């Protein structure tokens, strides 16, 4: 449970801009207010990290850059599909970044990394695959089922991430306990 709480904060914080955008769009706030609010929140997330003197995670920089680009394109053209396609671009970039070994170390206490670092690296690849699948699904829904996109973006990304997150945490916990028991048995 402690691992779950350790990881959920950064996960929600990193996604806050798109969450605000999707919620406002689903509430029929309009594309301009939703775009502006999502952009302001994404900028605020990065600004908050910088103000605290903390390193800004790569995913936060990627999210901010894509929010700024797609927000400008949406506001300039009035076409919401730019913002709707933004998650596809982000998912492709993030999926590629997630192919890097060790990126999950931010989400687990350092002491536990020594025990299950290999499992975390395998899950890094699984997370990457989820991002690539999410990119494809988002593009399909944004282009061909535009009216359904607010519901899709409000449900699928968070549900799929929290679902995989729950499986990830359960597997890591199980493997950690098994390895600790095995280590204790060998020590006796």
From TrEMBL:
The protein's matches in InterPro entries, at most eight in alphabetical order, are given as: YciB (IPR006008)
Any GO CC annotation of this UniProt entry: plasma membrane
The record's listing under Pfam families reads: IspA
KW Ubl conjugation (keyword) present: no
Q: Does the keyword Transmembrane apply?
A: yes
UniProt KW keywords: Cell membrane, Membrane, Transmembrane, Transmembrane helix
List all membrane-crossing ranges.
Answer: 5-25, 31-51, 58-76, 88-104, 125-145, 151-172
The protein's name is Intracellular septation protein
State the organism named in the record: Sphingopyxis alaskensis (strain DSM 13593 / LMG 18877 / RB2256) (Sphingomonas alaskensis)
């Amino acid at each position: 449970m402690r691992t779950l709480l350790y990881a959920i904060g950064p996960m929600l914080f990193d996604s806050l801009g798109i969450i605000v955008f999707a919620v406002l769009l689903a509430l029929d706030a309009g594309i301009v207010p939703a775009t502006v609010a999502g952009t302001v929140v994404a900028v605020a997330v990065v600004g908050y990290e910088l103000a605290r003197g903390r390193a800004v995670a790569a995913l936060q920089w990627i999210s901010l850059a894509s929010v700024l680009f797609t927000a400008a394109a949406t506001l300039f053209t009035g076409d919401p599909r730019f913002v709707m396609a933004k998650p596809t671009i982000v998912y492709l970039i993030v999926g590629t970044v997630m192919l890097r070994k060790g990126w999950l170390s931010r989400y687990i206490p350092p002491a536990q990394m020594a025990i299950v670092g290999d499992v975390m690296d395998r899950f890094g690849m699984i997370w990457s695959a989820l991002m690539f699948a999410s990119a494809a699904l988002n593009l399909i829904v944004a282009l061909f089922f535009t009216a359904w996109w607010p519901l899709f973006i409000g449900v699928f990304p968070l549900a799929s991430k929290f679902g995989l997150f729950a499986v990830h945490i359960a597997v890591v916990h199980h493997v950690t306990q098994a390895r600790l028991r095995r280590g204790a048995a060998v020590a006796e």
